[in-house]
Design brief:
The chain is about 55% helix and about 10% strand. The protein contains 18 helices and 14 strands. Helix 11 packs antiparallel against helix 14, helix 11 packs across helix 15 and helix 14 crosses helix 15.
């Protein structure tokens, strides 16, 4: 194909080449070595290099980036390395394998090449070719020495072409010709740029992402100038108020008129007998979730075999916890949604929640050690046996993992076992509400060995809700604890192994637990003292221990609660 390059473009390319050669020549040797090593390190960490079985390199000439450290790494990892051989006359490149013990000898144009008897290395889709260049642009276009050897080679190359360049020799655009082919990846001493179909961010080509971001910034600036942002914020607030109104209307079965709201409520007729405290409906909700959890194991196993376990767990969380809870709230009386405590957290409770989080982790560890032995920390140790072991994976897999085993369990389980159950049972005492909700929460996980761990966690989560007056507090603590169980436990096991003493490890846990328990007790005292000043004692109704035990026993004396106990014994 005949190139259509103007004289001005030819002159500009010549000037650009001269400028790049001058910039490379004036760089101090020590700085050049550091930059080259940084580039080699980034290449070695890239997925393109890890996947590659064959790596095509070049011999650095006239200030080009030195890839000798990368070649040594290829030798250590057992990768095949090859260097180009230029055919005299046609200027075509053929890559030949450099075997152990082979020496490079001067070939065409004085460039060192593998010996003539070296075998030809055929490229495939798993081959990585690293190209030199005087400069590159941010679209992957390359400016070479001008002979077009690599351009002819790339026309039939089936693998991944990766360019290397220093940061100051990376331009926005450079002159190109019709036969010039861009590389698929470009490595500087600071970053890796990817182009074409494989350059994606969350499944979207990166050039498109960058273009959308630039357009978004321009639109935002224009909107700010025209005060559109201000109008949009006002509209969003109105939409939010409308949505909240519809939500309340849905749950409250319609709004009463203002006169009815202002009228004094009639005194309810007091209930007598076990029905006053042992409401049969809440245990039915728990029994439903228990049955659905056991049935979900069958569906989850089938989805796991099909590679859809994350999506399956997300759907099951919604079906098992969220939908039954919403239906339950909808069927209760119109005042019940006001008692489930979806209130904003206060910053003054932050230190109290931190103390509870440390107590959750250290207490869980100590209880696990007591039930499973200190040796359990050296193996596949877990505090949450419902979590699958995971390592590596794509960005989307990490998002699904966080959603399926981090966010949704924290929200859905707390909605049922802290929000709904506590709102029901606290009418006869906060102590009963905490005990019953904690008991059912511990039974939910169907594990004899970890039952004390879940009791401890449930007790602290319920305490967090009553201290902050918001169900968002146990949801937040539950979420952070889940993240620790997903990603933090390997480091904990490594810390125990490196400590070299089980007694020292247990001692450190006990000190942390006692210390932060004291902090939490002090903060709880301050919190409830402030509530007492405001005469906000509705949620602090704790009968004497004997009466609380009696009320708790009566609350659990239902057929549904007995069914929950049977299910737990059978399936644990």
């Amino acid at each position: 194909m005949q190139s259509k390059v103007t004289m001005e473009e030819t002159v500009s390319k010549k000037k650009l080449r001269d400028a790049c050669r001058y910039a490379r020549a004036k760089l101090p040797p020590e700085e050049k070595k550091a930059r080259d090593e940084a580039i080699c390190s980034l290449i070695a960490q890239s997925p393109e290099f890890r996947r590659a079985k064959k790596v095509f390199l070049y011999v650095p000439m006239a200030g080009e980036i030195d890839l000798i450290p990368l070649a040594k790494r290829c030798r250590r990892e057992g990768k095949t390395i090859a260097f180009p051989v230029t055919e005299v006359g046609s200027d075509r490149l053929t890559f030949r394998t450099l075997r152990q013990g082979d020496k490079l000898a001067a070939g065409a144009y004085g460039i060192p090449e593998p010996p003539a008897d070296a075998p030809i290395c055929m490229a495939d889709r798993h081959t990585l070719c690293i190209l030199p260049g005087l400069c590159y642009d941010r679209s992957g276009n390359r400016l070479g020495q001008g002979k077009g050897c690599y351009d002819r080679f790339l026309a039939s190359f089936a693998g991944t072409a990766m360019g290397v360049v220093w940061e100051e020799l990376l331009f926005e655009t450079i002159p190109t010709e019709a036969h010039d082919l861009p590389v698929k990846a470009l490595v500087t001493e600071r970053e890796i740029l990817r182009f074409g179909e494989k350059e994606r961010k969350f499944g979207v080509p990166a050039p498109l992402v960058r273009g959308v971001k630039r357009a978004g910034r321009k639109l935002k600036a224009t909107a700010d100038r025209l005060h559109i942002t201000e109008y949009a914020q006002k509209g969003a607030k109105q939409a939010k108020d409308t949505a909240v109104g519809l939500w309340r209307r849905f749950f409250r079965k319609g709004d009463a008129d203002e006169a009815a709201k202002a009228a004094p409520a009639a005194e309810p007729k007091p209930k007598t007998g076990w029905r006053a405290v042992a409401r049969p409906i809440p245990p039915i909700l728990v029994a439903v979730t228990f049955l659905l959890v056991r049935l979900s194991r069958i569906a989850q196993d089938n989805l796991s075999r099909r590679g859809s376990e994350y999506i399956g767990v997300i759907l099951l969380q919604v079906l098992i916890f969220l939908i039954p809870a919403v239906v339950y709230i909808r069927l209760r009386d119109e005042k019940f949604p006001d008692r489930i405590r979806f209130k904003k957290l206060q910053p003054k409770h932050a230190w109290f929640l931190v103390c509870l989080l440390v107590m959750m982790v250290t207490g869980s560890l100590l209880i696990s050690i007591l039930t499973g032995g200190i040796s359990s920390l050296t193996g596949n140790f877990t505090l949450y046996n419902t979590f699958p072991a995971r390592s590596g994976g794509s960005a989307w897999e990490t998002v699904y993992l966080l959603l399926a085993f981090g966010v949704l369990p924290a929200f859905c389980e707390e909605l049922v076992y802290r929000s709904v159950l506590c709102a029901e049972y606290e009418q006869v005492g906060t102590g009963t509400a905490i005990f019953v909700s904690t008991l059912f929460f511990a039974m939910l996980h169907f594990s004899f060995r970890l039952f004390p761990v879940y009791l401890w966690l449930g007790f602290l989560l319920a305490g967090a809700m009553y201290a902050t007056r918001s169900v968002l507090a146990p949801m937040l603590l539950h979420l952070i604890y889940n993240l620790f169980c997903l990603f933090g436990q390997p480091y904990l096991s490594a810390f125990y192994v490196n400590a070299g003493s089980g007694e020292l490890f247990i001692f450190c846990l006990m000190v942390l637990l006692l210390l932060f328990s004291a902090f939490a007790a002090g903060e709880a005292r301050k919190i409830f003292h402030r509530y007492a000043k405001r005469e906000d004692s509705r949620l602090d109704k704790i009968p004497p221990l004997k009466e609380t035990a009696k009320l708790t026993a009566m609350s659990l004396a239902t057929p549904a609660a007995a069914l929950c106990l049977i299910l737990w014994i059978v399936f644990s």
